[in-house]
Specification:
rod-shaped, alpha+beta, 248 residues, four-stranded mixed β-sheet, 8 helices
Length: 248
Amino acid sequence: MVIKVYLASSSGSTAIKKKQQDVVGFLEALKIEYTPLDIACSEENRMWMRENVPGEKKPTNGIPLPPQIFNEEGYCGDYETFFDAKEDNQVYAFLGLPPPPGSKEALQAEQVPLQNGTDPDQEPEDTPQEECNGVENGESEELAGEEAAEEGGEEVAGEEEEDAELADGAELEEDAEEAEEETRKEAGEEEGEEGEEEEDVEEQEAQDEEELRELEEPEEPQSEEEEEAPVTEEEEEEGADAEDEEDE
């Protein structure tokens, strides 16, 4: 089997050149023999490529662009399908070639899990229908029990979450009530202190007004009776003796 890669050596598109180099370089790295066919220098190669690319792989204008990859006469794909196969380590399957022993693709094929623990190429043994039904019934019962247990666990978990949410809500309400009580107490204490301060201020203002009134009121003059000191009996006797002496 010969791998054919249709290329355009004189293409003016940088993207096409890069895609062609990617395909050729990867094939050379895997040491896969291929034959490059230039459509720029051969009209026969150009026409053959256009005619043998499937219609669903052609663009809207009907002219497929290189690189196009074939295995003999069979179409493998374009650059996009080649790139996808390279990413999935399926290049040999893409090219229709058996993977070499020890390659990633061969190892992946060997590591495919066996179906139900048996070789997929081995014919399954006949199992009595009763045993199959018993196994199926037992499995269905086990599954039903597991589902019921899971549902019960979910219900219990849901109830626990609801209880936790209710407890959290009650704690929050208690905290809010305590905070309101503390706020009211503080407000009452502040009001009492403000009332005492207002009373002290009013008393001080009353005292100040009283002092001002006392200072502003003029002192009343003393009356003549108040100014005259009362005469005692001794002073009257002394006055009488003095008058007698003068008469003598």
